[in-house]
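Data availability (excerpt). The following record was deposited with the supplementary files.
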Amino acid sequence: MASTRVRAALGALVALLALAGCSQEGRGRAPDSARTPSYSPSPRPAPGPWGRDRVVSADCMKGGRFVAVSVRSWDPGPWKPVAERSFDVPESVVFWQEPGREAVLTPLFDLCRENPSDAVYTSDALERVVPRVRALFDRDFTRMAVVLRAPDGKGTHVGFVDEKGLTDLTARDGRPGASRREQNAVFAPDGSRVWFTYEAPDGRARIGSRAVTGSAALRDEGPAAAANLPLVVLDGPPRAVQAEMVHVSPDGRRTTASTEDRGQVLLDVPAGSTALTEAAAERAASLGECLHAVGWAGPDRLLCRTREGTFRTFGTAPGAAPGPALPAAGGGGNEGLVVSPDGSRFLLVEHPPGDPYAGFRGFRVAGTEPGAPSAKVPAEALNGQSLLLEWR
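Predicted structure:
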């Protein structure tokens, strides 16, 4: 659990689109300003072991000679596991910070590291950690994106792990100079491409992607930020946003986002891949006391943890006031994880009052409306190292 690991309003959209448009010109693709944006929310999964009405957890399992990531699907009625997948993590995959070596950006650190000093992102709050780690996997949790140390020790590669083992996509490219400083590897929801940030030959930070089949040639996708910000890939059509706490609205048109130094902001989903800069965040619509967004509790309502540590819903319509505190969710050191598909409930982690780093007291289900009951999650297989990544 991250308690043991320290660690994007129209004006903003114009800035983001301008950046994204510039990134595509001269690369064989029409500028964003010449394309009609297509917005489509992520579809709800069909019923099944990994389908609708399931909660998905992830654990990093470590033994004397192996590391693996275990992903489980839970029925949140009786809180029993109904399916499980395991991803073996070879030694070449970066899952911890090696002493004396340059820090590498990968959300796998959030899941597997044990030493708090190994943090590579700014905040260890679970509301930030959960979206980072969820982005490692495709929609159905069949593949996991990874960052690898280059075989010659110079730079980093990106690839993925599935039931067949490890695939190094950068190495598959095979072109001279293909070995770049590629980091922040995450999956497109459809599992077709691994997206990442990389350093271009001119030293600029960029967003790129590689297909999981074929030549895996690098495709430039847009500007990145030279900051310790994670990456998430949105649906319809795929585009990446480099920012913290990205939660797309139910209609697929707006998203929450945050930079390293700011609270939550609300902006239109950009038409192309881009990074949320501090300047763009300053121009975007602020969500006030919403410090950490947990997810959408309705078409125009966000569930957040506030600066005071309480959970409230925040209306996103102009002039909307935040709702009352949710007493059943507790406060102090508790952290939010995921919201149910209908927005009525959410999962949280309980910590001792006032200190999220003092211990783990378990998981709880609480309502997003005042007066709604809450209940402790009775799953014995979940522990302080488990992350609950999605309520499908």
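Summary of structural features: Confidence is low (pLDDT under 50) at residues 1-38.
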